[in-house]
Automatic annotation (TrEMBL):
It comes from the Bacteria. This is Aspartyl/glutamyl-tRNA(Asn/Gln) amidotransferase subunit C. Its EC number is 6.3.5.-. It comes from Cohnella pontilimi. One of its GO terms (biological process) is translation. Belongs to the GatC family. The gene is gatC.
């Protein structure tokens, strides 16, 4: 499959881009080069390769939940700009 100038014009119209004739020709060549590289990758024998979703193996790094004591409310609110009734006081965001 190859990209034509007509294909570039179509995509440019969808993206609402006004391309010059030189840009259309340049993008046509660049996109064809990308497709050529993808075709080259298709030549590789991947029959013995296991499909993966990531290059590196991933595993869950979350720790188990455990109950721990929380900080005292006085210490939590020590650096609060304003507090009221044991809670942070913030400016109203709704009228």
């Amino acid at each position: 499959m190859s990209i034509t100038v007509k294909d570039v014009e179509h995509v440019a119209a969808l993206a609402r881009l006004d391309l010059s004739e030189q840009e259309k020709e340049a993008f046509t060549g660049q996109l064809n080069a990308i497709l050529g590289y993808a075709d080259k990758l298709n030549e590789l024998d991947t029959s013995g390769i296991e499909p993966t979703s990531h290059v590196l193996p991933l595993f869950n790094v979350m720790r188990e939940d455990e109950v721990r004591p929380s900080l005292p409310i006085e210490e939590v609110l020590a650096n609060a700009p304003e507090e009221e009734d044991g809670q942070f006081k913030v400016p109203a965001v709704l009228d």
